[in-house]
Every structure is written in structure tokens, then in C-alpha cells.
Amino acid sequence: MTTTTLSSQPSFLKKNIFFGVTTATILLIVIMALSFGLHIYNIQSIGDANAYYTAAVESMLQSWHNFFFVAAEPGGSVTIDKPPLGLWIEAVFAYFLGVSGFSVSLPNILAGVFGIPILYHLVKKYMGELAGLVAALVMAFTPVYVATNRNNTMDGMLVFFLLLAAWAFIKATESNQLRWLLLGAFIVGLGFNIKMLQAFLPLPAFYALYFFASKTNWLRKIFNLAMATLLLVAVSLSWALVVDSIPADQRPYIGSSGDNTVMGLIAGHNGTSRLFGGFFGRGNQDDGGTLPSTLQPASPADASSQPQQTPRNGPPPQALEACADQTQGSSCSFTQPNGNTINGNCITPPNTDRLACAPQGMIPQNGQPPVGQPNDGGSNNQGGTPFSQETGSPGVFRFFTQPLSKQMSWLLPFALISVVLGLFAAKIKLPLESNAHKALILWGGWLLTCVAFFSMISGIFHAYYAIMLVPPLGALVGIGFTQLWSWGRDRSWAGALLIVAAVITFGFQIFATIQYGEQTMWLFIAGALLLLGSTLMFFQKKAAYLALLTAMLIVPAYWTVMTTASTANQNLPTAYTGSIEQTGPDGLARPQDDANRGANANSELIDYLQANTQDVKYLAAVPSSQQGSTMVLATGRPVLFMGGFSGQDDVVSAEDLAEMVADGELRYIVYGGDRGNQQDIANWVQASCEIVPGFGEANAPQGANRVDGQNQPQGPGGGGQSSTLYLCLP
């Protein structure tokens, strides 16, 4: 029996083809083409993408003032709760292509596709072409990577910038030149101006690579890192300091900040609230998960059939039935008695142990109860963790269990095994000489930092943040596989170790697939390849290694393809949820017309407001962007977000509204429900404005005096879930 040996690199990668182009280059181009196809396929299904950000781009294109401050709506009342760079880039694309879900997502799509050759180059630097190709392939077929890039959330763009920063830190390490270190710090600072503190997650790995692998003397390295840190802080805070230096009456309110400063936003909503939830400051908003408008035209005929989701009545029966056979966080839909279709997710409402289908506007926000429900501190939200329907509860197994395991964890066991393998690649010397150890510090440090951070935080954590782990995941899979390939030349146990690692990884993939109710033939194909590779190890090592690698890649590749075919949760991008996902009443995906901006807005309300507000600045004032973003997209008109993103900000007071009405800037206010800290506005609206018949008043409680002698709700919108349209005259 003859057993073939392995070279350090597969022979087919060494062949030159036309004009000196290597096979590896051709394969990389193929991977990029496949990635681009996955990013573009079914792209029309994203509709407006994240309407909160898309409406901001529409607003930014209407004035340089709005552009600089990243105003959330054309009137410039409040900013987006993010720094500007990512939205500036999206606005440039929208300027040339027009504002649409596709145009604002295109820069993220391009960042995703062109991030692949960057990762290939970085991994190849230390571990060779085979490792680079495997890393590129893993990144291209990781579900959350494609899902997030097919959206205008800026995380995909941030990952692209961080890959560029990694390149600069590698150059600094190899060249011992300060300029490359400063360039790396500068790029990370740009990343901070895309997603703030999230950009700093790989920074310990970047600094450790330079500190332990650069051949500069130790004191010089400390001095250089200090210089780089100063530049990093200066670039990171540049926009924030400029904005905070401008008087508050000359700029928009800083959304989600709590104190109307960008520094407050950094420290609070985008700082401690990410770690601990909404208990520190005003971190009671999410990242732009725009909710459907609750205002619907009403008539006495259908008022009695309108289901009320209140503490007294509980979820309607239809909502309970829609989630009878589902799991926490799965997509759902049901039809109300009046014929309206509600789409949302399955959650466990307070004071009940049954799942119910809740519109996104009813899903608990950052540990807060659903609208209209008593505040129990989020105790019914899987331990009170914000967005646990997306990311589960904190703990060491967070990435290995539902609902987070579907995002990027399919190859995580192999990547973690690769970290251990890298420790034994060579004898450790300082400064580091082994390329494997340099790669391990960079990519292992990046991965382990993110895994530990996201596993433990109990604050705001969306599923698509897992894209931060994708580059180091791909790199470590490539590094580990290449290390075993290299060892396989003269170590018979290397093949056995690969089999064990592949079996552990595939076993987890089976476990994860079962969690989402998925039974696919691809599991059997992957299992067959695993068995084939294990058998071939005794006869043909090269074929065995490639078969085992393919076996591990099949399930994540299938999940990625299904992610692009699904249209669930486009506002907050996520991977395919398996067979438990309900894409529509007929089981098909819900297509959306990308040209029909603001399709989720109430068309009757929009038509009414358009016809009656041509002589005033604002189309209407609304409690938050949840009601207003789609109105902005449908009309391009200013819509005053009185409470910022989700109604928690003090953007305007009752006195401000009265002044705007008196000055002829505002005529209509959409209001209703329990608005908490906006009680002064509620009192003013009740005393100074009157209900417009036909828009929401049927859902308000009876029994209060009305200016025309008819019944009026006791408060604007009352205790019902629907809002009410008010006319306010000077």
C-alpha cells in the first residue's frame, strides 16, 4: 500500500497559467465572483434595507448641514445614533444612483467582495497561498458575512477598514517603520467614525503583533505604540469634538445621547449600554431596527375587531397560534380579524410562558417591555438580556447555541482547535520569528477577543455584530488546515488529527442544524465526504485532506445560500433561520419593490398629509423614527422625530412644538401610547390640538371631553397601540 505525501503547498497552486497568472489567483477570482453573486442574488428583497439609515441618507442629500451632522430626517431635528463616515460613504453612492435600499447597501456589498482578496493577501503573508485561499473561501461562505453586507448597517464597511488596518500593522511589524504603525492607527480611527468603540475590538491583537514580533527595541516599541495611540484618539474623536463644540441651537439633537453630546453618545448608548444594557444612561434604543408605523386608518366599523395587546387582554389568539410550533426569535405572521396581516417575530411576552407573534414594534427594546406592557425590568426576556431573541443570553456557549449559532459558528470549533495547533507550530522566541506564531497573535487574538467580549456582554448586542468574527475565523481555519497539511508530509498523526477536528466540527454542525429544525440532504452529503476523506487518508492523503475540508464547508455554504434566498429580518440582518422560518403565508419569500421607497408607510395618511401641508415645513411630528423613517422615504419631506430613534430623546419640548405651530412650521402631530418622559408633550397635545377623524381615534379609550363635543381620548392616543393624528392650529 502506497501513501502519498504532502508538500508544504499543493502542487496545483504552483503552476503558472496565462501571462504568469497563478492558479491561486484564478481561484481567488472565482471565490470573489461567487461572493458577488451571493451578495447580489435576490437583492430586490431588501426593500428599503434598514429604513432608519436609508431615511438618514435621504436627509443628508438635502443639505450640507444635514450631511455633516448625519441628520436622521430632512428637517435636521435629530442625528443618527452613529458617527458619520459610513453614512457619508453611503450618501455618496446614493447621490449618483438615487436613494434606494440597494444604492445605500452597495458600498457594503463592495466592501464584502473586496475584503476577500485582502484577507487572502494577509493570511498568505505568513502561511502561504493554500491558507489564504481557504480563509477567503470560509469568509465568502459565512452566512452573517453575506447577510450583513446585503444591508446598509455599516458593520461590513467597518470590517473592510479593519482588514486594511491589519495590513498596515503587518507592514509596521515587518518593516519596523513608524509610518506604517501610524497608518494602522489612523485607519482604526476611521473605523471608530463608522461604528465607534466596536472598531477597537481587534486593537489588542494589532498592538500585540507589533509589540511581540517587531524587531525594534522594546523601549522604542512602547514609544511608537504611544504615538500611534495618540493619533488613534485624535482621529477617533475628531468629528465628535467638532460637533460638541457647536452650540446646541445651531445643530441637530445628538440622537440617543441622553445629554445632547457626541461624547455622551460614545460613553452611554454606544459604550456602557453595549456592555450592561440600559441601566447606565439612556441606552434604550437599538441599532436602527425600524418598526412599522402603528398608525392605521380606522373606522367605527372595524374598531371592535382591532386586537389590543395590553396587559389586561394579553396577546391575541392569532398571535399565539402563529408561534405554536415555533421557537424564540423565529419569523412569524398572522392575520387580524379586520384583514390586516402582521409580520414579526416570536417572543415570550411578560406575564406569560407562551410564545406569541409580535410586530417588531412590540419586541422588547434593550430590556424594556413591549409598548403598552408593564416594565418588569426585562425579566421575561430570557434573563433580561436586550435582544435575546437575536443573540441569546450571556455565557461561554452563546456562540454554540440558538439563536446565535447560525451566524458564523459553523466552523468555530475547527478555528479554536487551530489556535491550539498554532501554539505548537514552532519554538516560541521573542521577538517572534515563526510566521505561524505571528499569524496566531493577529488572528487568534482578534477571534478570541471578540468571542470573549460578545459572549459575556449583557447589553445591546445584535446578531449581525458577529460579522466582526468572520475574518479571523476564516484566517484560523486556513491556518489550521495548512498547518496540518504541512505536518502531514512526515507525521502520520497529522491526518488523524484532521479527521478528529473535522468530526468535532461536523458534529457541531449537525447539532446546530437540528436547533433550527433543518433536515437537508447536504448534511448527508457532508457526512459522506467526511467518511470518504477518513478512508482516503490511508491511500491518498491529498484527496483525503481536500475531501475533509469540503465536508466541513458544505453546511455553512448551504446556510449562506439560503440566507440570500430568504427575506426575513432585512431591517436587522441575520442568517437563515432554518425550516422554522415563515417567509409568507404561501411559504414563499416576500418580494419587495425596491423602487417603491417607504412601501411600509401608511399611504392614506401620507396622501392626507401631503395634501394639507404644502405650505408648512414639516409633513408631521411623530414620536420617533419608528413611525417617521418610512414617511421620510415615501415623501422626502421633513418629519419631526420628537423622541429621536425610539422616543427616549428630548429632541423637542411642548414649548418648542407650540412655537413651531405658531410660526407655521408644523401643523400635524402623530401621537399615542405611553410615551413616558414626554408627558409634557402629551398634555400640550391634548389641550391644544384636535383629533383628525378617521386616523387612529377608534383605538383610543372613551370618556374624555373633546373640543367639538364628541368623545376624545384621555391622552393623545390613549392606552391603545395605535397612534392618533392631531391637527394643531396657532
Topology:
Blueprint: H1 23-40, H2 51-60, H3 64-69, H4 85-97, H5 101-127, H6 129-140, H7 143-149, H8 155-175, H9 178-195, H10 203-213, H11 218-236, H12 238-244, H13 262-276, H14 300-303, H15 317-322, E1 331-335, E2 341-347, E3 356-359, H16 388-391, H17 405-408, H18 412-423, H19 435-456, H20 470-487, H21 492-515, H22 521-536, H23 541-565, H24 603-612, E4 620-622, H25 625-635, E5 639-641, H26 654-662, E6 668-671, H27 679-688, E7 689-691, E8 724-728
Parallel strand pairs: 4-5
Antiparallel strand pairs: 1-2, 2-3, 6-8, 7-8
Helix pairs in contact: 1-5, 1-6, 2-4, 2-25, 4-5, 5-6, 5-7, 5-8, 5-19, 5-20, 6-20, 7-23, 8-9, 8-10, 9-11, 10-19, 18-19, 18-20, 18-21, 19-20, 20-21, 21-22, 21-23, 22-23, 26-27
Overview of the molecule:
The relative contact order is 0.12. Helices cover 49% and strands 5% of the residues. The chain is mostly helical. The termini are far apart. Helix 2 (51-60) packs across helix 4 (85-97). It has 3 domains: 11-238 and 394-565, no CATH class; 300-385, no CATH class; 603-728, no CATH class.
